[in-house]
Amino acid sequence: MQWLTIYKKECLESARNYRWVWVPLVFILFCIMDPLTTYYLPQILESTGGLPDGATFNIPTPPAPNVFMMSISQINTLGVLVIALITMGTIAGERKSGVAELILVKPVSYSAYVTAKWAAHVSLVLLSVFVGLIASWYYVQLLFGDVSFIHVMSSVAFYVLYIIFVISISLFMNTWTKIPGLVLFLTISVILVLNLITSIFSHLLEWSPTSIVSHLPALLRSGEVGQNLWMAGLITILSIIFLLFGAIQTLKRREIV
Amino acid sequence: MLLTQNAIEFINDNLAIIAPLLIIQVVLMITALVSLIRAEATKGPKWMWALIILFINTIGPIAYFIFGRSQE
């Protein structure tokens, strides 16, 4: 019951901040920008006059799955930044302003407080990512050719795990410090370092959460979920549970001191 | 003259493709403005945020939603 109350309170706060409107819109913009600019690239080059007279330059149209991957990599950079920005103050800010104490003196368990906040942010962000990628799929279908809807949906299902992982990192960092800016910095640094390590040792770390994205092009083309992708998904789910558990434990210790 | 004619022709031909992009940008801008007008206080002067939302495409409304709203 109390879990549902906190969840509803978080959703209401998101509504008061107009987040239910602007976050989905921004994700749709991020996702459709790349298919559109790729499609209109010849016209854009022509109108800016980038090519000298007589130069012929054939721009091959990229295959449809590659264009869809452009949208995903856009979410991977700008989208992750937006996610980190909207989650950076969710616990840290409340502890700073004293709202967290107001809530936690009532018989509310720490685990309910953390997981309800997590669930509220996950619902908002998942809705946005889903809407954005559907819009991207629509444009790819319209402008570049066929991509199977089922392949797209299974890729989105795995990609969404990575996004939940990002939210969990941010929530975990939220319990460590009371400064929202520092939460943002720590979250982005952890993701950057993870990406770096995964790409350097890519042959060793095929199950790392950040490697999910590199498995997606194959899934989009063939529709077959490889063993590495299954394992990466499993590792991601385990890390999410571990991060949430860690967040609850840290918060407990911080509040007593 | 020739250029503007070309541009109008181009927009006419591709309106169905570009329209959603423009509509989303306009809706985002309007939501940000409504939120700005209804807000009691913002970080920094309101007229500054109004200019940012109106003249900086896409990034302006996002910046307002993330940094402009004061948590009272």
UniProtKB/TrEMBL annotation, chain B:
Name the UniProt key words of this record, in alphabetical order.
Cell membrane, Membrane, Transmembrane, Transmembrane helix
Which topology term describes how it sits in the membrane? Answer: Multi-pass membrane protein
Its cellular-component GO annotations read: plasma membrane
For this UniProt entry, which residues form the secretion signal?
none
Subcellular location(s) of the protein: Cell membrane
**What is this protein's name?**
Negative regulatory protein YxlE
Q: Keyword Cell membrane on this protein?
A: yes
Has UniProt tagged this entry with the keyword Glycoprotein?
no
Source organism of this protein record: Halobacillus faecis
Where does the Cardiolipin synthase N-terminal domain start and stop, copy by copy? Answer: 27-69
Q: Which domain of life is it from?
A: Bacteria
The portions of this protein that span the membrane are 15-37, 49-67
Q: What is its main location?
A: membrane
**Which InterPro entries does the entry link to?**
CLS_N
